[in-house]
Amino acid sequence: MMRPFFYVPLAFLLTACATTHAIDPQLASTSLADAQIIEVKLSNFDFGPSTIRMEAGKAYALHIENTSSGGHDFTAPEFFAASRVAPEDVASVRDGQVELGGGQSATIHLVPSAGTYSLVCTHVGHALFGMKGTIVVS
Ligand SMILES: [Cu+2]
Hints:
Layout: H1 3-22, H2 29-33, E1 36-43, E2 46-48, E3 51-54, E4 60-66, E5 72-75, H3 77-82, E6 84-85, E7 97-100, E8 105-111, E9 115-120, E10 132-137
Parallel strand pairs: 1-4, 3-10
Antiparallel strand pairs: 1-2, 4-8, 5-7, 6-8, 9-10
The structure holds copper (II) ion.
């Protein structure tokens, strides 16, 4: 009859952790509802705009749209690592990269930190053709 005493407190602890995470004040749904929308278009072979400007500590809805028929990605690992990404959008960012097939789009809600970050499309040859940018958070 030892087992129930071990498992019940552990389950309670995990639930408590999840609850603490969900009420993070900077990423609460109320602040994200006021998120400023930033549109970035991916095309052959360009980010539009190629310089993305944000203010540190403000909530943004980063809307990334691939307007071409081929695949592109929005790769900025240092930027995403330094940002607080909304829990529901974390799965859209893999290793600092948002991959979009032709015509696809994604919206990432986040609160950025100050810095200058490089942005690139990692598809072979795309950066050489000019698919590079900068994210400036001041
Ligand atoms: Cu590309």
